[in-house]
């Protein structure tokens, strides 16, 4: 063994880098979600509106106590009703759930091939929490919102629903902390972070394209466990593109740039970031394999 | 008077190949025996002996299984192993600092 601590530390640092490069597999979920996002573009075809300003429901929901409730509201663009809202809702629900399962399966399969396994627990927990928003949170929020409105409370229904969800989360966190005191510190950090991010996600879900925020939460968690600078940058750029798509009407960007508008142009930016990120990840892995 | 950095060195861990095994295991959920063997360029017998020492010290956990019909041995680091590795790295850095200052 070398007696020089400097040489030893350098050797260990080299080993650490090599293991990280060997276990990186983030190009797969990026390419998968990129292709699936591009494939969703035809589903954004707008509905032909009748002449004369007749009221048109935007989604596939139903009237509950006089208020429109739609479980797929998270996925729609804000400004116009769609020709196939049910297909779009089912498509994104399937993409989020099956894409998440495929990603976890991919890392397990890759571990058998390379001999080094990426820990996916953090990704699984973060994505499950984020997935709970469209699958459970949004329908519950709309239901509570409709119920509260019909009861004529002075509070805005949506705000009351978010407050109710937060209250439930706080109670669950307190019960969990009492049952397992050794996890108090971790919970004290994690629970507020989850509460704040979930609240933001629920709030943002009201303006559409929320599936990209769910994907962003998952990719940021994956970038953390992958310990890759390149992937962290890609995940960050995707998060910015997801926020832009969610909070801004991308049609305006195309119009200002003088570009032609087309069906699904709203999702072009996040789809392109995912695909280009996947290609960059694949290239980085090929370069790393040559070096080692 | 401050304690000499070598006082923080654990004899079980302070060995080049064992440090290598712990460093690799700390970077993954679990690592396969064959990966450790090729990465550290060790013979199967030599690697096996080091893993046994680390397992007996409670620094590693060993899990034997199959990939189809092929037997596979997976190694994962324990919390105690992570702490021992962190202490060893801190001791090595302290030694280096002392050497640079002296």
TrEMBL record, chain A:
Record-annotated membrane-spanning stretches: 26-45, 86-107, 128-155, 161-178, 185-203, 209-225, 230-248, 268-287
Keywords, in A-Z order: Membrane, Transmembrane, Transmembrane helix
Keyword Transmembrane belongs to the record: yes
Record has Transmembrane helix as a keyword: yes
UniProt name for this protein: Uncharacterized protein
Organism: Lentzea tibetensis
UniProtKB/TrEMBL annotation, chain B:
InterPro entries, alphabetized: WH-like_DNA-bd_sf (IPR036388), WH_DNA-bd_dom (IPR027395), WH_DNA-bd_sf (IPR036390)
Top-level taxonomic group: Bacteria
Domain (Winged helix DNA-binding): residue spans on this chain: 18-95
Classification via Pfam families: HTH_34 (PF13601)
Gene3D superfamilies listed in its UniProt record: Winged helix-like DNA-binding domain superfamily/Winged helix DNA-binding domain (1.10.10.10)
Protein's UniProt name: Helix-turn-helix domain-containing protein
UniProt organism field: Lentzea tibetensis
Source organism phylogeny: Bacteria, Bacillati, Actinomycetota, Actinomycetes, Pseudonocardiales
